[in-house]
Write a structure and sequence with these properties.
With 164 residues, this protein is mostly beta strands. The chain has strands at residues 6-7, 10-11, 14-17, 26-31, 36-41, 46-52, 63-66, 72-76, 81-86, 92-97, 104-109, 115-120, 124-129, 134-140, 144-149, 156-160. The chain starts with 5 loop residues before the first strand and ends with a strand.
Length: 164
């Protein structure tokens, strides 16, 4: 069984043990346009919880990445604000304005949770230092369409549709 959710052209789903209190089943976390994250039980394919961001001004989710410790996620809203979402309290914190051209379409978090790598439809990769709460680098790629980190976080792979 496979649970997916389409955000524009990007399919996002994160399969992990649930971080929701009292819910120990394996779950898929799916971001929704309304600024919420649905928690779907993989055994029943049922929505078991909805984690709603606690701020009315944090509208929509363009990108979502689970933190390595699975107690929180990093989310990017429609206005380019990166924020830490506590999955138990639904509190947003550590907000960082991402001033990059285009919309963020994908995000990965380093295994040590020190950096976020955001792919925009510009296409650019924006590197954010999560501890310093700032953009530290922006890289341009022709035809960039996906991101992946090596398991140890030492290498960032950028998929491209431009093979020329």
């Amino acid at each position: 069984m496979k649970a997916q959710h389409a955000l524009g052209a990007v399919i996002v789903a994160t399969l992990l043990p649930s971080a929701i209190p009292g819910y120990a089943k394996e779950a898929v976390y799916v971001p929704a346009a309304a600024g919420a994250v649905s928690v779907i039980d993989v055994a029943t394919n049922a929505v078991e919880a909805i984690v709603q961001t606690n701020r009315a001004d944090f509208i929509g989710l363009d990108a979502f990445a689970m933190a390595p410790d699975t107690t929180h996620a990093w989310v990017v809203d429609w206005y380019g604000t990166l924020a830490r979402l506590d999955l138990q309290t639904t509190e947003l914190s550590n907000q960082i304005s991402i001033e990059a051209p285009g919309t963020v379409t994908q995000m990965v978090i380093s295994p040590d949770a020190t950096f976020a790598y955001l792919l925009t439809d510009a296409p650019e990769v924006v590197v954010v230092d999560l501890g310093a709460h700032q953009v530290v680098r922006t890289l341009s790629f022709n035809g960039a369409s996906g991101l992946a980190l090596s398991p140890d976080g030492s290498r960032l792979y950028v998929a491209s549709t431009d093979i020329a």
